[in-house]
Amino acid sequence: MAKDTKEKTNGADKKTSEAPKAEASQDVPSLNILAQYIKDLSFENPKAPMSLRPREKAPEINVSINVNANPMSETDFEVELKIEANAKAEDEAVFAAELLYAGVFRLNNMPDESKAPALLIECPRLLFPFAREVLANATRQGGFPPLLLDPVDFAALFQQRAAEQQVQAQMAQKAN
Predict the structure, then answer these.
(1) Cα angle value 112/64/48 (rounded, 5°)
(2) Measured between alpha carbons, how far is 66 from 167 in angstroms, rounded to an integer?
(3) What is the value of pTM for the model shown?
(4) Percent of the chain scored above 90 by pLDDT?
(5) Which of 43, 102, 115, 162 is deepest in the core (most CB within 10 A)?
């Protein structure tokens, strides 16, 4: 039986029910961040100080992003966000940056069909702003303007990856 209590807030009475909240919170799926950290960071400026000279044309920067999730226990997962950025000008390397930023996430009461989207879409979405800042600081401290990455559509990356895996599975079936 639910226990009703009166709570006084700024002179107004407010009724709350404690029991349904406790029961509902036990079954509700949740995603919690337990930790986040730089797992690996590399910045190379191979032509310094010549690479820092003013240029007429901005260097071409290629960025690649990859996401992986590794189980640590039944509810805890490490999610890795790998970002690689390579800048070239006149066919010469200007800088190369590699960041492996990770987080440990806990998924409670999550249906199996929701785990992969949570781990490969929502978790990297939560990590991305911090990884973006680390990369911007590394390029700035390397003598260049900060590399400010555009927001990433992790749902589209997830769908692309799923489509690629499906094609590979079909090719493997045909080979057998």
Answers:
(1) 145
(2) 19
(3) 0.78
(4) 60
(5) 102
